[in-house]
Amino acid sequence: MSLLPSDQRQLLHKCILNYVQNQIPQEKQETTLNEGADGSDHVISTLAHWLKVDLDTADTDRPVDGSLLPRKWSSIVRLQRRIIELEKQIEGLTEENEVLMENGPASGATKSSLKWIPRERSNFSINCGASVTSAKLHPELPLLFVATDAGKLQCYDLMNYSMPVASVQAHMRGIVSIDVQLSDSSECLIVTASKDLYCKAFRLVDSQLQLIRTFSGHEHVVSQIKVWKRGTDTLAATCSRDLSCRIWDVSNGWCLKSFQPHTEWVRCLDILGEYIVTGSNDCTVRLSHWPTGRGLSFGMGHNFPVEKVKIIPMQKSAEAADDQQNKYNLFNEEYAELGFSHVISTSRDNTIRIWQVPLPRFVAHRPPQPNSSRQHFELITTLSGHSSWVRDICVRGDYLLSCSDDRSIRVWDLTTGHIVRVIGNAHDGFVNCIDTDQNGLNRQLLISGGTDGKLKVFIK
């Protein structure tokens, strides 16, 4: 059975015939013709008979390029060489993946990836059509979720980003914050907070963003939302301009707790276990116990509203792998019940501050109590370098990444407090958000979103 259609087979045979004929020296052909010999003619006619090519039509049916066969052969050689190169590359990537799977987070490859610093130019950008207000990476897959000031929630595949995998008009007004969580069945949950006073939960199913829950109760703009697992339950925490923080049960949409940690607009939050850290227009950072709503301690020092707060989770044990440790997340037995000892805050005063939180007073069978002798956060260090509001931060190994209205992204060494990389003019407008792997996978990947409506992707 032939691998080629009849027309392509005929063209190939004509090329072979033409090629053989061109290999006979011109003087030989002239001598043969003058002397009446039929040697070369016999070779050509025999080959034509074997290839089933009609000599009467071989040169008239379709013009045949005599150099076509050599050029096709050269193309095949180049293609084979490229295939060999790709096979070697695939083999190397497969070996690297096997090392990661076998050795887990403590592998050398993971250690190397945690030391990765994004280069000064993005690999590519995605035009999202409106100001990008929040962006999150899928915890496992090469997907990213993007929220815009036009109220749209979109999902893009990093392998093919020409069109969104899924897109939905999630809110009537701008989305200000999103977060992502995987369920035990690896179902991807995406939660959103908006200026329209509502929060929503979506799940990604068959390239569709399906709305599964709407949370209503806030009386003003919702500033940020975080989602996390607590046992078998999935909970969400929100903060708002109505001065309140609320804890929601995602499965039924009920509000489990509402409390007011600040006297002004609550702009940001982060949560770990039963503890929540919040930042506000009152320029303070506060630690609260959310099941009771009780404030435990606070930090003062920022001169303008706090834009973002981040808890640095402590390693679970003293034997934890040191490849993911910095001096702020080292295991501390005294803080083991709290789960962390340091938090980070950013502000419109252009600074990033790292605080050590005072340890609450723990009493058996009672909620934690404020420590009357120590209620103020201890300021450990102030990172100065941005020339405008610091909008967002991420912690990755020994590095802190920050973005700002000065259009730059900066990478800080948490050990020394020095800047190790400045990505200037990362966007044509303010840089609103950044995200990278912080737990679990450690892909060498950074994304950023700005008011220029673009999402920038930095990959090794």
Automatic annotation (TrEMBL):
GO terms for cellular component: cytoplasm; microtubule; microtubule associated complex; spindle pole. Keywords: Cell cycle, Cell division, Coiled coil, Cytoplasm, Cytoskeleton, Microtubule, Mitosis, Repeat, Transport, WD repeat. InterPro entries: Dynein_regulator_LIS1, LIS1_N, WD40/YVTN_repeat-like_dom_sf, WD40_PAC1, WD40_repeat_CS, WD40_repeat_dom_sf, WD40_rpt, WDR55/POC1. Positively regulates the activity of the minus-end directed microtubule motor protein dynein. Plays a central role in positioning the mitotic spindle at the bud neck during cell division. Targets cytoplasmic dynein to microtubule plus ends, thereby promoting dynein-mediated microtubule sliding along the bud cortex and consequently the movement of the mitotic spindle to the bud neck. HAMAP family: lis1. CDD domains: WD40. GO terms for molecular function: dynein complex binding. It is found in: Cytoplasm, Cytoskeleton; Cytoplasm, Cytoskeleton, Spindle pole. SUPFAM superfamilies: Lissencephaly-1 protein (Lis-1, PAF-AH alpha) N-terminal domain (SSF109925), WD40 repeat-like (SSF50978). One of its GO terms (biological process) is establishment of mitotic spindle orientation. Residues 76-103 form a coiled coil. This is Nuclear distribution protein PAC1. Its main location: cytoplasm. WD repeats lie at residues 383-422. Belongs to the WD repeat LIS1/nudF family.
